[in-house]
Amino acid sequence: MSEILMLIALMGNAIAVGVFSATVLGGVPLLLALPGEQYVHAHGFLATRYDPFMPITILLTVLADLALAAAGPGTALRLLGGAAGLVMASVITVSITKNVPINHWVAAQDPASLPADWPERRSRWRRWNAVRSALALSALAVNLAAAVVLIM
After folding, report:
1. What is the pTM of this model?
2. What is the mean pLDDT of residues 104-133?
3. Fewer CB atoms near the end CB (10 Å): N or C, the chain?
């Protein structure tokens, strides 16, 4: 059972890192290069492609990691599973408290008349997206260490 949980955690975590990396390396620079009106339309198009896939993927990763923390064989695997689960839970926290509110704000805007604080909101979203990307990458490193412990 631990092997299946580890596989779920690794797959979900790797998918999350891949999507976040693509966003950091390609999506964000593209969006930031667009004028406000085009940004609102492009952001709306891209944002709908990730829901509910990403939240489900990240939640499954957290649950698999926490299950390893609760029932994995050996203290090292339990500690690593718990650490990875907590770091991935922080990805959810950043998403819900920082990125999602900005996404909702963008979706509610009239592209033809954006408020003066528009550039700052874009910058904040970018910073918080970088934070959750780094957290997901950190969790993947911990999950890879847990996988090594499991197969040894």
Report:
1. 0.94
2. 93
3. C
